[in-house]
Amino acid sequence: MNQLLIIGFSFGYLALLFGVAYAAERRSAERRSLVSNPYVYALSMAVYCTAWTYYGSVGHAASHGLEFVVIYLGPTLLAPAWWLVLRKIIRICRLQRLTSIADFISARYGKSASLGALVTVVCVLGIIPYISLQIKAIAASFNIMTRGGAATSIVAEGGEAASSALYTTVALAFFTIIFGVRSVEATERHEGMVLAVAVESLVKLIAFLGVGLFVTFGLFDGFGDVFEKAAAEPALNRLFTLGGAGTSATQWLTLLVLSVSAILLLPRQFQVSVVENVNEDHLRKAMWLFPLYLIVINLFVLPIAFGGVLLYGGRGLDADTFVLALPLNAGQRWLAMLTYLGGLSAASSMIIVETIALSVMMSNNLLMPLLVRVPAARSEVRTHWFAYLSQVALQSRRLAVVLVLLLAFGYYSFVGHLLPLVNIGLVSFAAVAQFLPVVLGSLYWKGGTHQGATAGILGGFFVWFFTLVMPTMVGPGLLPESLLTDGLFGQSWLRPFALFGLSDLDYLSHGLFWSWFFNVGLYVGVSLAGQPTALEERQADVFVDVFRYRTVFEGPSGWPSSAAPLPDLRALLTGFLGKKRTAQALHAFAERFPDADNQLAETIAPQADPRLVAYAEKLLAGSIGPASARLLLSSAVGVEEISFDNVVGILKESQQVLEANRQLQKQSRQLQRLTDDLRDAYTQLQELDMRKDEFLYTVTHELRTPLTSIRALSEILSDNPEIEEEERLRFLHTITRESERLSRLITLVLDLEKYESGKATLDYAPVDVAEIINDAIESVGQLIRDKHIQLNIVVPPNLPLLTGDRDRLMQVLVNLLSNAVKTCRADGGGQISVLTEIAGEALRISVLDNGKGIDPAYHELIFDKFFQAKNQTTRKPEGSGLGLAITKKIVELHAGRIWVESEPDHGARFSIELPVSANTNEPQHTAAGAQT
Hints:
Elements: H1 3-29, H2 38-45, H3 51-64, H4 70-78, H5 86-96, H6 101-108, H7 113-147, H8 158-180, H9 191-219, H10 223-232, H11 234-237, H12 249-265, H13 267-275, H14 282-297, H15 301-312, H16 322-329, H17 333-371, H18 382-414, H19 421-432, H20 436-444, H21 450-469, H22 482-485, E1 494-495, E2 498-499, H23 507-529, H24 534-544, H25 566-577, H26 579-592, H27 610-624, H28 626-635, H29 644-653, H30 655-719, H31 725-757, E3 761-767, H32 769-779, H33 781-786, E4 790-794, E5 802-804, H34 806-823, E6 831-839, E7 842-849, H35 867-870, H36 883-893, E8 897-902, E9 908-915, E10 924-927
Helix pairs in contact: 1-8, 1-9, 2-9, 2-14, 3-15, 3-17, 4-12, 6-7, 7-8, 7-17, 7-18, 7-19, 7-21, 8-17, 8-18, 9-15, 9-16, 9-17, 10-15, 12-13, 12-19, 13-17, 16-17, 17-18, 17-28, 18-25, 21-23, 25-26, 25-27, 27-28, 30-31, 31-36, 32-34, 34-36
């Protein structure tokens, strides 16, 4: 096709993207966002699908079959867990105002500037080859479009192809700077860029589907025809099975792990999925929409790959070119142009987002930590210096965009153009995979330290570079071939593809295994061997327990109470954010903390509140990174944290005073304990004395009642000898009954005294439960018949024997049955039930009645002695108040328990549980006081 036409379409397409981004920026300024919806968010995440997906997947499928699927299977399997993992990362970055993966790792491990710099260097070195892959795809696709059928390789040869790639790269750099690096505050969302990336995701999807439909249904008669003809070819037939192309299970697992790491940790993915996230709830839609996108865009990979091999496999045509070559060689020029624009979209969107993310990382973690230490930051011209730093931060990001793209173009020119697309992408995936241990540790482990994270990343990076990057430099002649055959320094155990003699793995699995071996081992080992600082502990709490916080104002500050002069803090914020933005920030702080409102006037409290310093630190972190923000607050404004060494010094100086105070406190505690013991003893004596008085009063009251009746009736009989015989007999009967009552009461009091003093004895012997139940019922049988009470007895056969005192247990059942008879309805509708059952290792006997019931407030009190006598106005069983108290004592002496279940007007259920003895052959005679 005509070269000028292709160039015109290329720049026209970029101009269209300019327009889309510009419209999004205008709508955002009018507070009518075009990107604040989950569909745009999910489409922007499709920046994951780069030229590798667009061109490289077809080439990879043509030689390795289904292996290409694993790169998209990992993100698909991880998507359901985004609500747990990715949402947590989003919340952390929002509250801490973090703008990159380097900021994230640096902030977690003590806001370390050195660790942030290390992560940035690893990202740049690891991603530069990946960006060069996109440049290679642009150059190759332009070469194919201009040379038509003459272009048979993805390798773009000649100065003309290189120039076209460079021109396109410069244009993309211009677009990136205008719409991606327009503000110093990196946390400010790039709505224009996000919408442009979303549009590009649609374009590349439509274009790839167009090619797939053309190949499948235009050049062939559908999926069945393509796969049937491919199956007839031996070279393609082997690709239909998982292991047919020589791909092992280890390779599949490695690719799965790498793709999971990439979707979380690639700088561009972190940018669109975390930094550009408007609403956490958008994840719910992206969790199914993004995997659906991956499935749809890969539907036609195999038909295109097989169709290209079937039609042009013998002509030396590079499989990576099939996507463009098939429609172009078939005369479908406009379809080829759409396909070319789809490839340009796939490559350009990756370059734009990746360079934005890397530029922010380079500025925040390489340049700014050096500038904030410059002595001018402490001079009298602080406001001008802060404004200057702000401009430096902005310009440095723009320069970083250009530098990154030039480095990528340089790598492409010297090395990248010789390597397959997939190989370059996998090496970059393995680079960012070195961050996975420390990132997961930051989310779920509070024990990780700065030293451990640094050691782990350094160890993993060096092994990655040695095993995966250095071998790529052998082909272009940058390194000798002996490195691969003889090893580094001639040591065979230092061969990149057989490190320490391990040679059974493919090169990618081998590199990932050893890099993670050293990475995880050093991270965990060094962290456990060291001790986290106070700042690291605070950050660990914030990261691991982030869902306890909801706003940027929350969380521990870590700054002393006299943190910073407020004018200096205001000048610092104004220098980076401007007057308007600073005023808005301080107003938001005052609304959140009304008690600090007066402080902002500077006249009442010139020292800034520690909460305001922590808030200012987060605001600055969005502009220059967390490490630089903390350094700037510490150096430029004069804020200093109290270090651990300072605390130790203060403690040593006051050691003698603290020791003396400790001794005084110890003596005071001992005196207090003695005082408390005496007070408790006095309280117990008072309670015992009161209980003694109460007991004597109640006993005399109970004894006086029958004695009074006996005396009165006796006097009547003595003073009236002529009284009629019938009346005399009635009086004598009453005197006899009251005498028996008096005798029973005295007996009960004596029995209770024996039980409480431990003098009572129990005659233990095997007891037949059914027998004592029948005897107890017979004892109260006349009372039951007199009140016409219906009696229900449930005693299962073959009950185990109990070891106990038969007479005492009989007394318990008689007491319970007598109480039930007293409380039963007297209108002929009374009912009493006796139920017996096995409850675990105990035997339970329950006596139920349908009487007036017992208020739950008295369920425990009714077992106290004389309770009924003292509270005859309450609705509970009537009597002397000793029956249930004695019953409880007898049950407890048998190692059992008794309780009541009742509600007013719903009857009562008294239950006792007695343990079933394992040995009932020998009767025992044991003093009750000796039982436990």
